[in-house]
Batch of 4 targets.
Target 1
Amino acid sequence: MSLSISGQLISLQDADPKTILQRYLSDESTKDIAATYGITRQALGQYLLRNAETEWKDAQIVRAIARKEAAEDDLDSTEPLDALSLARVRERLRAAQWDLERVCRRIYGQDAPPAGAN
């Protein structure tokens, strides 16, 4: 598989989408994964969309849920947070919720069933 980004030909012929997704699910950043292939994170995302779209979406959902739960754990912690730490945790929570609303609308977005509906 070759991608053309900004006039450059980027080869991912030997890349295995499953290996990339495992690395991503192990909390490795897309920036670091892309660097090992000598490509940009945008090229990596494009490659995953073309070669493992459903799995890529599922992996993004898993990571967003993990970020959301970690932020909720931090808010629920018995350790007191200073104002700056509290603001950062709340922002991390909002960012994770925003991601979930985009990649999993059926459950977290506007397409979610009303509360209490079965």
Note: The radius of gyration is 17 Å.
Target 2
Amino acid sequence: MQIIEHPSAIYEYCDSLRSRGKKIGFVPTMGALHEGHFSLIRKAKLENEIVVVSIFVNPLQFNNQADLDKYPRPLTQDLDALEHEEVDVVYKPSPESMYPTGNEVKISFGRMAEVMEGKFRPGHFDGVGVVVTKLFNHVIPHQAYFGLKDLQQFLLIQRMVADLSIPVAVFGLPTVREDSGLAMSSRNQRLSDIGRSTAASIYKGLLKGKSRWDSGSNPEETKNEIEQFYLDTPGLEVEYVNIVNPHDLTEVKSNHQQSIAICVAAYVEGIRLIDNLYLRQD
């Protein structure tokens, strides 16, 4: 397993691979790896000859300095895990090498970034767009893999790639969950055992909403069912519950759309967690 730290070095290495006809799969991460990341890596290994995994905690996408400071960074553990997964290349640039002159250019995603995460984390997706574009430019992969736990992020990256004609195929893979149903996330490492138990209620609320939906309830009734369940859960502070079209994130107001998802953000022990569940998928 090779470890490369500088943008020019990863570019030269991957460019040489492409020139030799090698197909490159890319999994961008912020480290603190878990089974969700490993599922992306294994899929990339099946579909590509070379797999590159990046580890970079991107400061541009944090609108809360304390959240950035507390983000887990178990680098030695991550590298051991990537070696075990037989990853070919780890790209771990520093903030200084990624943004040597700061960052003035922004990527605006428009209306799709103004709801849900974009509403409550101003500037977040500007930072995501910049870092993903830079990583794609450095690694020049054929295919890139993202988890659908971050559904809004995936949709925006998919749209960015299409609108800006970036020659990378992007794929979203299903959320991987702990036995309790809690969506796997690097942030889960910061939860106590009690906090993990409370956080598992996020998925339970989504399942209650799906049950209500499957029984014939409309979007408003379904949303009310979920919100009430969360209100009745001690230690859980809900930020939003949205029922949306998962293609363009517009609010769903009827039962007749072909594709519908519930998206949730909540705090447990001061740690912000997100999750989603499809009610109907076309």
Note: The radius of gyration is 19 Å.
Target 3
Amino acid sequence: MKRNARRGSKLRGFLKDEGMLAEVEERAMKQALALQLAQLLKDNDLTKAEMAVRMRTSRAAVDRLLDASNTAVTLATLGKAARALGRTIKIELAPA
């Protein structure tokens, strides 16, 4: 019987071995951010259109920000969103 070389390995290790770890982590971070922003909109009783006005941008830009699959978000856009919600951004470079 052939032995499974991956048996007992961690998902993170598997994704790293397959060269997919960075992409998966980026998507997970964007999904967490999109969920947090959506919750803040709900908590503040704001529509996407109202958020766009506060950010001085288009509703389409807010839609992209709330789209968990769209990882192309700039720091400038995040800054506008944070300020519109009375928040700040905290970014950290952690060891790999």
Note: The helical segments are 11-17, 21-43, 48-55, 59-66, 75-84.
Target 4
Amino acid sequence: MARLGSEADKVDPQLRLAARLLPGGYRLHRGLTVPRAVMSLAVRAGRRKGVDTVTVNSNVTVRVHRPVGSDQPGPALLWIHGGGTVMGGAAQEDSFCRRLVNFTDVTVVAVDHRLAPEHPYPAPVDDCYAALSWLARQPWVDPARVGVGGASAGGGFAAALALRARDRGELTLASQLLVYPMLDDRTGAGPDLRPRVMWSARDNQIAWRWYLNGADPGEAVPARRTDLTGLPPTWLGVGTLDLFYEESLAYGRALQDAGVPAH
């Protein structure tokens, strides 16, 4: 496995073939046309039939995955897709969302938000907040049992959403589920000698620059926020070879230091 070299033995055996075949990054420095085309294929391939799509506002739609036979208000999770803030769509997560529903009986609603660089911060967070507010108002949702979650950039948006919900005081979240979240714009700024699969340090720096577009990182970047008190209980998961490993570990420890239950 040339790309991972001596680190190959640290990859789960079931994933080694995929790691060998997948590219070492999206090469965002060459533009977004090819990466977005690749992600569009993933969105189309992931789309499952029978999923209700609801328009929240002119910028936001959601895909609703509800447990079969659920009539009473119950718990719900707003799920935010990955894609480095610049690509992807909610339908790519259909199978994952359905598995969550089947395993937990929690309604999962996946949001399609606007993307950078055409729509930099705060537009994607605005869209996710609109979806969260819509979800909490639904008659089949217990507003006291609503969580947010996401993977990669979606995990970063989920963290930003939890901070916004706390700051505004309009919604009280029950949990946040951060899966290898993209939390810190400083990751990849220095030399990164470790080989990567799918998302490189260079990609990360370019994506953050497009997303922030001059915005104050102290406000827009979850890892730069100094006050994490009052955030909901958090589960955070990341692989040791992931580009986001160190920033995820640091954020989890900062949550614990702030008195937030975090695993």
Note: The chain has a mean pLDDT of 93.
